[in-house]
């Protein structure tokens, strides 16, 4: 972008004229000096602009400026020939200037230098020889030094020196002496100074390029280590957009080569999901309007899988005009994050459904408990107020009602416990303490059924992160199942096995056992091995399902082994991360404290 000159020092009328002239001249320059083809390389594009503008300026100078000068200020009789020569040279320059606009800037440099040298030489030989004419050689040399390497500039200087010597040989003695004694030495001195400056400039340019190359190498190595890709987009004067550069990470990220990129979006329609292409385009337009944009789009990987890209664009403004020069962008692969967000959303929906189910179960349980409480109260009143003769007849039915009420209350407890699994509260807790609690709760029940209850505890210093209430619910379900299917005189064993990375809670009995056909389904919700079981035995198939849910909530598993008439063993296995052992006090008072030197405790009636 070119900074517009200030005309504040001019009067208002002349200021408007100056602005109008400048705007028209700048529009003309941009129209006829800009490349007419798309050029990827920034350096080449800059060279094309410079050479094109220089040749256009020289063509205007030779085709308009010089003829006007010759006509307005004639200095000899060869004015007409000079005018035609200048106009002819300007047409030649305009022809090659159009080729330069198409990218052939090196050809334009060669033609410009050759034509200028020929015109200067012919003017000197054909017309009157003036000392100032030879200084045009210096202008040609400076023009060549702006783009061409040092060796070409040196070659042009040598050619100019040879031409000066030839002109001196064909001139009059006075002019020949002037050329050889004054013009030629000055030309050599000034040329030497110019070449020294060129050499210094080339040295600085090489250092800058080396530093840029080092920086690019570092950036390339860093870009190879990250999954994001970066790019730069520029808008052409005709309104089209052009990707200036893009990092190699694009190909590694998407699986497509960089040639798949188009001029209007970061990844082509062949890569981007068709329904999301408009999102890229709209965000790109907002970026070129000066807005920092972030958008997420779906894209097809090379293996045709659908992934997610997050594309961030930030505009770069021209400090002088405030217009957007280009847009920098970064593309990030966010497929994993999107999947995680989707999973989180699904989990949130699942929690909401679980919460709704939990509220429903609690409300239903409350209603059923109220009804059962009324039934039990009325049963009790009938039992107390009935006469002795009638009581003997009614008592079996009253006992049946009582048993069903207890059974339904127990199953409601199980359903409520399953509904409450949606709310897990983990905290460090002693493993041995959980078995101690179950031992205290069931030792009297086991004794009443003439069943031996054995507890084999692990190290009392071992704790694990658990929901202790839920673990005790699972152990209670296993104990209820064992008591239900163990004959009087049998044995139930609770054991905690603590290893380096797992803790297993085992409940085994020597009771009826379970047929192998039922084992694969024993933990399914509402599954019963004996659908015809009576009220005295069994429930609705909730207890063992509760055990499985608790195990899975602790990232563990539950398994069963059983033989008919030989007993059943349930194993609740959970992952465990050892902590530094710490001495703990006894789990609770003097109610029940098996010593550390007592590996097992047996209670029998």
Walkthrough of the structure:
- With 605 residues, the chain is an alpha+beta fold.
- It folds into 4 domains: 12-206, no CATH class; 226-333, Beta-Lactamase (2-Layer Sandwich), CATH 3.30.450; 340-423, Helix Hairpins, CATH 1.10.287; 425-603, 2-Layer Sandwich (Heat Shock Protein 90), CATH 3.30.565.10.
- It has helices at 12-33, 42-72, 79-101, 105-126, 136-145, 150-169, 173-225, 249-254, 277-288, 335-385, 388-419, 431-448, 468-484, 543-553, and strands spanning 229-235, 241-246, 293-300, 306-317, 324-333, 427-430, 452-456, 463-466, 491-498, 502-509, 557-563, 567-575, 600-603.
- A 6-stranded mixed beta sheet has the order 11-12-10-9-7-13.
- A hairpin with a 5-residue loop joins strand 1 and strand 2.
- The longest helix is centred in the first third of the chain and has 53 residues, at 173-225.
- The N and C termini lie far apart (101 Å).
- 23% of the residues are buried.
- Residues 215-291 form the PAS domain.
- This is histidine kinase.
- Keywords: Kinase, Membrane, Phosphoprotein, Transferase, Transmembrane, Transmembrane helix, Two-component regulatory system.
Layout of SSEs?
Elements: H1 12-33, H2 42-72, H3 79-101, H4 105-126, H5 136-145, H6 150-169, H7 173-225, E1 229-235, E2 241-246, H8 249-254, H9 277-288, E3 293-300, E4 306-317, E5 324-333, H10 335-385, H11 388-419, E6 427-430, H12 431-448, E7 452-456, E8 463-466, H13 468-484, E9 491-498, E10 502-509, H14 543-553, E11 557-563, E12 567-575, E13 600-603
Parallel strand pairs: 7-9
Antiparallel strand pairs: 1-2, 1-5, 3-4, 4-5, 6-8, 7-13, 9-10, 10-12, 11-12
């Amino acid at each position: 972008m070119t900074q517009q000159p200030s005309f504040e020092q001019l009067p208002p009328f002349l200021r408007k004229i100056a602005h109008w002239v400048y705007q028209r001249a700048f529009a003309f320059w941009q129209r006829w000096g800009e490349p007419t083809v798309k050029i990827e390389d920034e350096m080449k594009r800059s060279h094309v602009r410079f050479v094109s503008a220089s040749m256009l300026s020289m063509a205007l100078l030779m085709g308009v400026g010089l003829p006007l000068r010759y006509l307005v200020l004639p200095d000899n009789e060869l004015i007409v020939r000079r005018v035609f020569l200048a106009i002819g040279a300007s047409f030649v320059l305009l022809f090659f200037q159009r080729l330069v606009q198409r990218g052939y800037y090196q050809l334009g440099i060669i033609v410009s230098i050759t034509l200028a040298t020929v015109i200067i030489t012919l003017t000197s030989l054909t017309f009157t020889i003036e000392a100032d004419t030879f200084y045009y050689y210096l202008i040609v040399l400076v023009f060549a030094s702006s783009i061409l390497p040092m060796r070409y500039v040196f070659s042009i200087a040598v050619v100019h020196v040879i031409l000066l010597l030839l002109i001196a040989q064909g001139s009059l003695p006075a002019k020949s002496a002037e050329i050889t004694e004054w013009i030629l030495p000055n030309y050599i001195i000034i040329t030497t100074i110019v070449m020294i400056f060129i050499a210094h400039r080339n040295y600085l340019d090489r250092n800058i390029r080396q530093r840029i190359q080092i920086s690019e190498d570092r950036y390339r190595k860093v870009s190879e280590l990250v999954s994001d890709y970066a790019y730069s987009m520029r808008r052409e004067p005709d309104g089209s957009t052009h990707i200036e550069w893009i990092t190699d990470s694009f190909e590694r990220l998407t699986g497509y080569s960089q040639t798949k990129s188009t001029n209007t979006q970061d990844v082509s329609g062949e890569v981007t999901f068709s329904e999301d292409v408009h999102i890229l385009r709209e965000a790109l337009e907002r970026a070129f309007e000066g807005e920092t944009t972030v958008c997420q789009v779906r894209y097809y990987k090379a293996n045709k899988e659908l992934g997610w890209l997050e594309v961030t664009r930030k505009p770069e403004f021209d400090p002088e005009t405030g217009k957007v020069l280009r847009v920098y962008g970064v593309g990030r692969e966010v497929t994993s994050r999107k999947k995680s967000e989707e999973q989180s959303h699904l989990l949130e929906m699942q929690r909401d459904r679980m919460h709704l189910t939990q509220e429903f179960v609690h409300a239903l349980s409350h209603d059923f408990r109220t009804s059962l409480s009324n039934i039990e109260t009325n049963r009790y009143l009938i039992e107390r107020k009935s006469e002795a003769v009638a009581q003997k007849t009614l008592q079996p039915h009253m006992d049946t009602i009582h048993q069903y009420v207890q059974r339904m209350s127990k199953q409601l407890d199980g359903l409520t416990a399953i509904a409450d699994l949606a709310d897990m509260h983990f905290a460090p807790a002693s493993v041995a303490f959980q078995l101690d609690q179950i031992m205290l709760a069931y030792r009297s029940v086991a004794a009443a059924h003439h069943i031996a209850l054995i507890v084999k505890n692990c190290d009392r210093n071992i704790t694990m992160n658990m929901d202790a209430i839920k673990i005790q619910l699972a152990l209670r379900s296993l104990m209820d199942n064992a008591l239900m299917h163990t004959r009087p005189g049998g044995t139930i064993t609770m054991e905690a096995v603590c290893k380096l990375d797992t803790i297993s809670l085992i409940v085994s009995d020597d009771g009826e056992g379970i047929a192998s056909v039922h084992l694969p389904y024993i933990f399914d919700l509402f599954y019963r091995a004996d659908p015809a079981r009576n009220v005295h035995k069994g429930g609705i198939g909730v207890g063992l399902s509760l055990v499985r849910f608790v195990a899975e909530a602790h990232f563990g598993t539950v398994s069963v082994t059983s033989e008919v008439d030989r007993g059943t063993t349930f194993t609740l296995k959970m992952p465990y991360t050892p902590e530094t052992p710490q001495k703990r006090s006894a789990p609770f008072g003097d109610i029940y404290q098996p010593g550390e030197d007592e590996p097992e405790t047996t209670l029998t009636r």
